[in-house]
Amino acid sequence: xxxxxxxxxxxxxxxxxxxxxxxxxxxxxxxxxxxxxxxxxxxxxxxxxxxxxxxxxxxxxxxxxxxxxxxxxxxxxxxxxxxxxxxxxxxxxxxxxxxxxxxxxxxx
Length: 108
Prior knowledge:
Layout: H1 5-18, H2 23-30, H3 34-42, H4 49-59, H5 63-68, H6 75-80, H7 88-107
């Protein structure tokens, strides 16, 4: 299977924008340069596995979602796709609660 780097980069860009992050802020979180992040988003450069993992962590998604646009055929993903929010604040609260649950699970 061959990856479409422009599609992967587009997903990174869309997720970054949805989280109201600048290229500079996301690049700093991932310990890469903002010009390199720009190349990733345009699909003109390939990233390492370390960078993929850092981007997925910073964007709070799975590597599957970045690479293929989905986290597979998991019931939780299908359920989360149905969630709608009144406003950005409600979405932020939901994401924070979900992140806290995940951290708690990972600590077990």
